[in-house]
Design a protein that fits this description.
Ribosomal Protein S5, domain 2; 2 domains; 4-stranded mixed beta sheet; 9 helices; 12 strands
Length: about 270
């Protein structure tokens, strides 16, 4: 069986506090994109995993796809499978591509072996894999809180708009992203802001990580500024970066040939 794990952008990302367990509390709108990897899983005599596309750093045992398989294998005594992952979504880019792969593995195994796991339980399993993973079970626009595990689908879409996504392939570590971050509860509801006029987004919707990352990575800031110069009605870094996206009324023209670029109608 084959599935196409997507990715997401953050529309607004506020760091509002710190939890007792050390994680930061966030609030954000997660919006799914159709830019996707390809994941195939079939029953096999022995467990194996292979990968093509963008090179994946590290050992396969660290991959959320493998962790998702063993999570369900432990609970449901699954037989061995053969997994192939074709990577298209840039990694470590603030897009949640790895989280989507892990969540998609849970969904696909549930279908393949008729496990009859309901959506809520799949989300709980996904949360065991990582903070963003639960979102990709339903993969619908959502207001996300906590460390990323509190997911509330919302009635919101950008249908008819265009997105221009750019990843400059600059690695931003978690430590760097959170270094010097200042937490502050927002006095404006993100759900209200995204339903306001698009003209207000550029001044009202913020990604708090830009304040710590832009001073050290001027190239990322320039990409955002360039998207506005290119005609975007809104531009932002997504997640902890380094990907930046712009939203447009009309289809933009790609102009960063040395970076990963993706333009699509939403």
């Amino acid at each position: 069986m084959i599935i196409f794990p997507g990715c997401k952008i953050n529309i607004g990302l506020n760091i509002i506090g710190k939890r007792p367990d050390g994680y930061h509390k966030i609030e954000s709108i997660f919006y799914p994109l159709e830019l996707s990897d390809i994941l195939e899983i079939i029953p096999n005599g022995i467990f194996s995993i292979s990968a093509t596309g963008l090179p994946i750093k590290g050992d396969h045992s660290d991959n959320l796809v493998v962790k998702a398989y063993y999570l369900l294998q432990d609970k449901y005594d699954l037989p061995p499978v053969k997994i192939h992952l074709h990577k298209v979504v840039p990694m470590g880019a603030g897009l949640g591509g790895g989280s989507a792969d892990g969540a998609a593995t849970l969904v696909l195994l549930n279908r393949l072996f008729d496990l009859n796991i309901d959506t809520k339980q799949l989300e709980l399993y996904a949360d065991e894999l990582g903070s963003d993973c639960g979102f990709f079970i339903q993969n619908t626009p959502s207001f996300v809180q906590g460390k990323g595990e509190i997911i509330n689908p919302i009635d919101f879409n950008l249908k008819g708009k265009y997105i221009y996504l750019i990843n400059p392939q600059i690695h931003i570590s978690t430590a760097e992203a959170f270094a010097g971050i200042i937490t502050s509860a927002s006095n404006k509801d993100l759900k209200d802001l995204i339903n306001s006029d698009f003209e207000t987004w550029s001044s009202e919707l913020k990604n708090d990580f830009e304040s710590t990352i832009f001073p050290n990575h001027a190239d990322i800031q320039k990409i955002k500024e360039g998207l506005y110069d290119h005609g975007a009605f809104y531009a932002s870094m997504t997640g902890t970066g380094s990907s930046v996206y712009g939203l447009f009324d009309e289809k933009p023209i790609a102009n960063h040939p040395h970076y990963f670029e993706w333009i699509s109608k939403l």
